[in-house]
Amino acid sequence: MDVLSDVLAVLRTGRPRAAHVRWHAPWAQEFASVPGSAGFQIVLQGSCLLLPPDGEPVQLHAGDVLLMPHGSGHTLADSADTPAPAPACEPDDPRYSTPYAFDSVDPSGEGGPETVLLCGTYRLDPQRTHPLLLDLPERIHLPADLERHRELHAAVGLLAAELGNPRLGSDAAVPALLETLLLYVLRIWFAEQPARGTPAGWAAALNDPQITAALDAIHSSPADPWTVASLAERAGLSRAPFARRFAAMTGRPPLTYLTWWRMTTAARLLHTSDATLKSVAAQAGYASEFAFAAAFKRVYGIAPGRYRRTGALSPAPVM
Fold it and tell me: Which residues contact 25 (CB under 8 A, 6 or more apart)?
């Protein structure tokens, strides 16, 4: 599995939620900050203003996609002069009629121009937050660009069709399309960073074929007995330059990252499967339960068996 796919598979938890909403001017809506989630807004019809808490208003047009990777609060409105009502719109709003959507609503307005939005959230597990996502900005705004973002807009169109007219199979289609939407947004953002002059960090790592080769090796087979030398060979680099380059881009030396990802994968297996501790240890690259338990406790501060019994605890420390 490639690194981005693996990170999203491990980080995502629960089912994403989405709403298909129509507004008639004048209108404004505040969306609350929701830690432990990523929110999105997509303009399907009309236009509106993004009113961030820190900065100038941003005009959004039909086809624009907005992602808040860290669940940041924000306000959307037809005009900067329209007051936003309270309380804020939140993911647990009782209007959600299914695990993924609430029925289209038409908030009171005065019959002005119509704006149609897709909005929603992805639940993220704070115990498995990956540095790849920590590198993301508070907001990612992808303006409508059918030439450059064809796949993204195809996913948006399919999602809008399913939410606007639920039919047989929509309960399966919508979550899959929401996952695809998140992947496309992140893929586009990371791919565009070199052109913006990003010198280091995960955007640089994911656009470096040699470092990506090493990362994909770790994520494809985390239990393999990787060494700096064998990972450098995968990257097509000599040992010392590879180690320096990997650490500069990802923020961690290769084997430190490998250990951290093994423990992250193990924590997920403990929470989401009934695999034995011996099986979890093997999948994390440890020959014995004892060695695995010692490594796990160093990272999480708790034995793996107790971790499984007590449920979600505090996040693992950054290694």
Answer: 78, 79, 82, 109, 110, 112, 113, 114, 115
- Contacts of residue 108, defined as CB under 8 A and 6 or more positions apart, other chains included, come to none
Contact 316, 264 (CB under 8 A): yes
| Per-residue confidence band for 62, with pLDDT thresholds at 50, 70 and 90 | very high
The Cα 188–Cα 121 span in angstroms is 19
DSSP-assigned letters across all residues of 74-115: EEEESSTTSPPPSSPB-TT-TT--SSS----------S--EE
Residues 98, 112: Cα–Cα separation, whole Å: 30
The C-alpha atoms of residue 156 and residue 154 are separated, in whole angstroms, by 5
- Spatial distance between the Cα atoms of 12 and 133, rounded to a whole number of angstroms: 12
Distances (CA, A) of 284 to 27, 70, 101, 207, 259: 51, 28, 37, 27, 9
User: Residue 204 to residues 96, 123, 138: CA-CA distances in angstroms?
Assistant: 39, 26, 18
Residue 273's CB is within 10 A of a number of other CB atoms, namely 12
CA torsion sign for 211, 217, 219, 222 is negative
pTM over 0.85: no
Q: Residue 74: how many CB atoms within 10 A of its CB?
A: 21
Q: What is the pLDDT of residue 35?
A: 83
Q: How far apart are CA 240 and CA 248, in angstroms?
A: 12
Q: Is the pLDDT of residue 96 over 60?
A: no
* H/E element, 188: helix 170-192
The rounded distance, in Å, linking the Cα atoms of 90 and 70 is: 14
Burial class from Cβ neighbours inside 10 Å (0-12, 13-18, 19+) for residue 102 reads: middle
